Amino acid sequence: MIPSDCLTTSCSALIIAHPGHEIRVHGWLELARPFVFVLTDGSGHSGKSRLDSTTKVLKKVNAKQGNIYGRFSDKQVYAAILNRDFDLFIRLTEELVDILTQLRVELVIGDAVEGYNPSHDICRLIINAAVEILLKRGHKIDFC
Ligand SMILES: [Zn+2]
Hints:
Elements: E1 12-16, H1 26-32, E2 35-40, H2 51-61, E3 64-72, H3 74-82, H4 86-102, E4 107-110, H5 118-136, E5 142-143
Parallel strand pairs: 1-2, 1-4, 2-3, 4-5
Residues 17-18, 21, 117, 120 line the site of zinc ion.
């Protein structure tokens, strides 16, 4: 649930692990028209990307694709976790910090930790780390 004071902002970002998660906040998507970052292509076990459906939704509501958009498969994320490839996630966080800074994003909304799907949990960890770095650098940014 998005707090009422987070409904709209001059510049916001939605950061999600998989295509399709944007539907969970469709009303807000229409209001805020955020930059949308999607970590994976949603291919899961099928190997078939689900990004096209998200792209159609974003076009319909006039939201914008972020620079990170279906960059990984879930298999790649799982392999990075199992191989303790922390650098991949650190680089991704640093890239996100740079992008959010350039875009002057003031509100970030994204997936929650649920302890079930590793990509969802990684997404939240990256959001929290990026926001913490931005706050320490003096940026005005809110998140939920
Ligand atoms: Zn998902």
